[in-house]
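I have been asked to look over a protein record a colleague put together. Alongside the sequence sits a line of tokens, each denoting a local backbone shape. Please read both lines and tell me whether the tokens look consistent with the sequence. I do not need a full report, just your reasoning and any doubts. I have pasted the whole thing underneath without changing anything.
>
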Amino acid sequence: MGIKQQAAQVKKSQVFLGSVSLELRNRALETISKVLIDRQADIIQANRKDMAKAEEQKLSSPLLKRLKFEEEKIEEVCSGIKSLIGLSDPVGKTILARELDKNLELFQVSCPIGVIGMIFESRPDALVQIATLCLKSGNGVILKGG
């Protein structure tokens, strides 16, 4: 599937995501956190394979440090998700309300942006952070890791 088809598919999904309740979005975030903990051993094993390949390719020390995704980073990511769950709903907040004239009011209300594209390198924790922030805010996301 090409990038245009992916973007179209994400946009279609985002329309739904932007309209679901905060409760449902928070439950999805809880599920992500639970799966990260439940599958931690598999994640660490896969990351170690990535680390070995990166070392073979002689990536720089700072890149290797960012690429490492061990128990401590997984716990930090899950803690961040729990904090995110505790935040109020960013969707549908009235930012500004003003009466312009009799029976004419202006409201500025927050809404999802739509689809966000993100390119990142050697940051497995960034993938989770970006995806969960987009989920909380009702935005679709296309991620390209390297």
In short: The chain is about 60% helix and 20% strand. Helices lie at 3-17, 22-38, 40-56, 61-67, 71-86, 124-136. The chain has a mean pLDDT of 95. The beta strands are 94-101, 104-109, 115-120, 140-145.
